[in-house]
Amino acid sequence: MYQILTKRDARTDPAWALQRLFYSLQTSDTPVSTQELTKSFGWGPRQLFEQQDVQEMSRKLIEQLERRMKGTPVENAVPELFAGKMRTYISCINVDYETSRTEVFWDIQLDVDSNRSLDDGFKDIIKVENMDGELKYYAGEQHKLQDARKGVVFEIFPPVLHLHLKRYQYDISRGSMVKLHDYFEFPEEFDAAPYLSAGANKSEPWTYLLVGVIVHDGDIDKGSYYAFLRPAKHGPFYKFCDDQVTRATLKEATRENFGGKYTNEGNLANRASAYMLVYIRKSRLDHVLAGITKKDFSEHLGTDPPNLKNNKC
Q1: Which of 51, 117, 160, 81 is nearest to 274 (CA)?
Q2: What is the pLDDT of residues 41-50, one digit of tens each?
């Protein structure tokens, strides 16, 4: 991040604003404002008091950083950290014919309404769909209509894996979007190897460690976000909400955010549930969580540190 060349007081540059934010967080003992970063996105006072979607914010930030890193020594840093590859295929059963398309992904979206765990969610994505009967696949002039199988396989997962739990969906009966409070379990560690294609490189383990849980507390029309983060390889979780940072237990970061808690009367007991998860491949932890020293900072980042103003979850 600090290797992107920026100019002093470049208030419309998200790279400069994020450098300033990181610098302030890493050198200050008091809370810092995110206003410089949000202003660099073109957001004004009105947007600051609206509920913004965390997943959309994540993608917007990644796009901005990737654009700013082009032509620099760290041009490929963002995709090397956050980008994976998945392949969608249709394979004929009775003839030798297959079509496929490989795509880059920045996060993986997991259905909450039809699954109860991370494992269920991944199995749902890679399950094979039969194309037969009226759904036969047209395999060109040579093979015509054929029975086929359609599916998705992951070719590679990134070192930093973002998982988006799809807790918002359109309710036909209500004619509007609703939040799903369904139970969805996720582990502290999980092995991603079973979800990779047969030809993927498995020379080293694909085990991931949970380092971030972004929680949404509330409903579709109102609420707030806060996060549980593990900043050190062997350290504890901390809860980050507004200007408060407190140490948290593993249970507080995980089980208490699975959702689906109801009272004996059938009322929802807790409206807080995980919305995004961040995992880091264990073999890449030392690289991703490497420390920062003073020589990494540009001098102009340390001038006029921002003050805390309207810093919302």
Answers
A1: 117
A2: 777 777 666 6
